[in-house]
Amino acid sequence: MKKHLGPILFLCFLISCQTESKLTFEPLQLQGEDCDGCPIIEINILSALDDSPVSEVINRSLQEEIISILSFTEDKTIDSADKALQSFTDSYKELKVKFPDEVQWEAKIDGEVVYEDENIITFVMNSYSFTGGAHGYASTSFLNFDKSKGTELENWELFDDLDGFEDFAETKFRIQEKIPQDVNINATGFMFEGDSFHLPNNIGYTKEGIKLIYNQYEVASYADGPIVLILPYTEINLYLKRKVKN
């Protein structure tokens, strides 16, 4: 038994280190007022519990994402998720007074961790809102954070070689969407601005690889839905600033 004690202790230590590197979260649920003249609002995200700079940044960024989705004004006093919910509700009630037949508004937001290692943690925010018109609008947002620096990362900060990654992504995009490499990127019906390929607004780490999501209207029509491209780490690690161990 003694000769196996060393490997067992090392394994326990390794598991412990991996567990300690993970941040701690609890579910956070927010709902709008429950009344006949109120919009439907359901928010299910996470709240970081660790006493660390990155936890503070995560919680603040998640709040800001909720505010951007629910707020219709540039009111600087809307600085929390609760105030954003109230703003969305007030906007609907005001419209309902002027137009009693206005259909009920709706907003749903779900957020979860889709990737985490010792260097980076990525959240995905899926939202759906309906504020009248022919249909609602669904979107996906990625939020990437550097755990050691305690900062939210802009897309360009994910890469050592952004231009190289963009060229590689275009090649893979054309293959996936069956666009010949020697024709205009919009030749088959896409709507890239300036007739040139560009990376989407939302890029995130996932277990499968770096995921690129073009939301509805970003490069295609509403009917086409979101356009998703996943690039495995084995193919794109050379472009990343924070490599992923395979």
TrEMBL record:
Domain Deacetylase PdaC residues, every copy: 46-136
Matching PROSITE patterns: PROKAR_LIPOPROTEIN (PS51257)
Signal peptide range: none
Domain DUF3298 residues, every copy: 167-233
The protein, known as: DUF3298/DUF4163 domain-containing protein
